[in-house]
Amino acid sequence: MKDSSANLKPVLVMIRGLPGSGKSYLATEIQNQTESGQVILLDPDATSYSTEEYISFSSDLSATGVDEMLHPYRYLRSNAYKAIISGKVIIWNQAFTNQDLLHRTIVNLQTFAKEKGIELPVLVVEVDIDPAKAKERVANRAEQGGHDVSLEKFERFINDYSSFSEYGYQSITVNGEENVSANAKIIKQEIEKLKIS
User: Fold this and answer.
1) Residues paired with residue 41 on neighbouring β-strands, in sequence order
2) pTM, two decimal places
3) Angle, nearest 10°, between helix axes 52-63 and 71-86?
4) Phi-psi category of 25—alpha, beta or left, where left has phi over 0 and alpha has psi -120 to 50?
5) Domain spans of the chain, in order of start
6) What is the mean pLDDT of each run of 10 residues along the chain (197 residues)?
7) Which CATH number is associated with domain 4-196?
8) Which of 21, 77, 89, 150 could form a disulfide with 17 if both were Cys (CB 3.0 to 4.6 A apart)?
9) Beta partners for 174?
């Protein structure tokens, strides 16, 4: 019999990697392999910023003087807070080439959890890929009407990107060119270990 309390323990999974590395496919597959309703997927590129909920949230932030550029991030963070309280697996899918932002996001969410008396284990997933292959995928995605990344921005991502493993968080690296379902299964197993640790 499964420990029902383990099912209510939140876990934060930060998926990072270059644009075109396969982060979104991986995040979606992890969600598909996890019990329905137990995962929240946060992705700045896949969030609808035209919903009434977001518009109301953004309006409230503007009223307190928060820079509009920060509203999308604050919105995702707010949803993460709710998921922590609900004991869900939080999959935050973003390039996070800026390691300081990644670290601050994790610390902020763990601090929030601690204030609520909740333990929040963290798993950082690094999706590794050859930059040329990632660039090709981005170009193909743009041709099909998907999210594009300018060449200048992509080059900046490549130059800024480095491993996050030295920060001391539990981390795992997967190859973005390998089978997405198999990679998701490996990560799901790590999530389950964190839930019962």
Assistant:
1) 91
2) 0.89
3) 110
4) alpha
5) 4-196
6) 61 93 94 90 93 96 96 97 97 88 94 97 94 85 75 78 79 94 96 90
7) 3.40.50.300
8) 21
9) 127
> Could you tell me where the DSSP H helices lie in the chain?
4-7, 23-33, 52-63, 71-86, 99-115, 131-143, 151-160, 180-196
How many other C-beta atoms can be found within 10 angstroms of the C-beta atom of residue 95?
22
Distances (CA, A) of 58 to 51, 53, 54, 150: 11, 9, 6, 27
119 token code pair: 């333990």
Looking at residue 6, its pLDDT comes to 55
Distances (CA, A) of 76 to 58, 103, 129: 12, 16, 26
Contacting residues for 61 by C-beta, under 8 A, at least 6 apart:
68, 70, 71, 74
Distance CA 134, CA 19 (A): 6
3-class secondary structure, 171: strand
